[in-house]
Predict the structure of Nuclear RNA export factor 1.
Amino acid sequence: MAGTFFKAMSDISVKVGSDGSRNVGNNAAMDREDKGGRGFQRNDNGGRWQRGGGFRGRGRGRGGRGGNRGGRGGNRGGSGNREYHPRSRFENDDDDQDGDASMGGNRSGRFNPYGGRGGGGGHRERDRSPTNSSEWWKVIIPNGSSHDREWLVKQLKKSSNVPFEEKNCHNVKESFCFFVNDESAAKALRRLNNTITTRDGKIGIVTKPSDPPRDMNGSSHRGRGRGSGNGRGFSRGGGFSQGGGGSTRPARNFGETETAPEKLEVLKEFLSTRYDHNAVKLDLTEIGSDKTLRTGDFDTRIWQPKLMNTILMLVNELCPNLKSLDISKNRLQRLNILANLSQKCPSLEELNLSHNSVKYLDELSKISDCKTITKLWFSDNPAKEQYENDDSGYVSAIRKHLPSIKELDGVILPPPITFDLVDDKKTLPTVHKSYSCNTEATSILKNFVEGFFKIYDSADTNNRQELLQAYHNDAVFSVTTHNTISNKQNSKGLNDYFNHSRNLVTLKSMEKKTSLVKNKKLSVVALLTELPATRHLLESLILDVCLVTNECLVFNLKGIFLEGKDLTPRSFTRSFVGVPESGAKFLLINDHLTVRQATEKEIASLENGITQSSSTGATVSPNLSAEQQEMLQRFSQQSGMKPKYSLDCLLSSNWDFQAAAAKFNELKQGGKLPPTAFGV
């Protein structure tokens, strides 16, 4: 029996046709006998039978871009090309823009005389090279659909250093997508990833090579082909299944409209019977049962884009001021057909979507551009059922996509809770240099500040011990340095303050944080004597009186002082808290000093202010007498320095003209005067 079987098998011949079909007959011998359990396999590249690992292929496979779905050969056994192509998380997020990736390389399948479902899967690997012949690139912004489309594109154009023209803007789930026909523009957009800030955080941007968008290339198809013979394949992108033959059908074109004149006339007649002139309302309920459209040989499935696009086109031409649109009772599951509703009906105020089959409220994002809609009917949709006992959640979910809704399902809604935003039309209040909650306290504090810094700015820092009388016995003091602002003209850092700096951003040790707070007035003044010598510029001081009560007094000082012999400019902020003392006096119980390098803008504004005061003959400082002002102008003319630096030099010499001149020569010869010290 076995011998008869093998003899019969030896007389069988297999012929492979050009269309991929196989003919089995007699009078031909196999190329080689199957030994050791290995099957004979057909090499798709050469069309010959050869020996290989026993593969078994079945199922439906994925073709390349614009290619086909054919036999996925789930490879099992020994040798063969098994290639794994990881797919990007953003691949094929637009269901009709890009083809699917290949699920394998050169596949071989064991000969199956009963015919397989392979679809003839040959080598259909997708080209994933970074360049493409059409130079089209797809730009994907994850979660971009939550932002206004026009605003988002405007921000991208404003931030990109390469101009671009966006094409085919659309939303895919939560992402916003569009196409550009310029590789340099795509790269510029990719560089903007996580650089634009919105209320929800940074905007992510992904770019990838792409086929031309649908509106640029009319050949984008999705088809399902059934191969003749043994195979059955699925064609995607306009190709044919490798399994032999098969036909394709075009994909849905969401911008397609009816063009036949006779059908347009039928549609106009239909719209005239459904239009209410008094209410400016169009009734499109139950289109599938309309006799006018049925006699006109129309596909009355309203969810097909062609019909709805044509209706909206005619509405825009014949009645652009439409106020109310009723699309209820049409078994709609998705609202893609209304994506251009805001463009075609810019004055629409009422929309009826009730008695349909919409399963998700997120479908309303397709019409989120309709800012004029204030009335919405959405009852009797599956999406409403999940909010059966949650009216407030239902309203919030609707307003997430249509915030202008005032009436929902016939119920007038309360106004949405919003933040009180400043009206842009109102003018902002005038900016004042300083703030004071008590004018009487301000005059007292000015005298205190003048006396405090007169002692603090002594040439000998040990003289700061006289400030003991200004502090309370339980006084607290700390100092912080802020070194993130750099000044190229100032090479000296803040090293003299680092050992005392209590910067909570950089300090990690709690013990260190505690030890840097000086308690009791003796410790406070002892630290003040260790800090570098200073000369505060009183004309730069800004005094803010924050709080005045019977128990305490809170005020802040901000300004610039010159440090050390080389007169390095520093910017500072000092916060004081005072408590009342007998004799109408107050003592400092809390003192905090923040020091940083002065910015170039601060130095320039200070120099300009002093120069203008000197040139107009006004007093440079309210504390200078007429004799001192005359000495300042004479010293500035002879030294060639700006009035600010001349004033610093005179102050450090206690208004001794000869001593100031000697100090100026010393600093100039030592190269310690910055170039900005000279000039008009």
Notes: The two ends are 119 Å apart (CA to CA). DSSP finds 17 helices and 27 strands in the chain. Residues 435-485+493-610 form a domain with the Nuclear Transport Factor 2; Chain: A, fold (CATH 3.10.450.50). The chain has a mean pLDDT of 73.
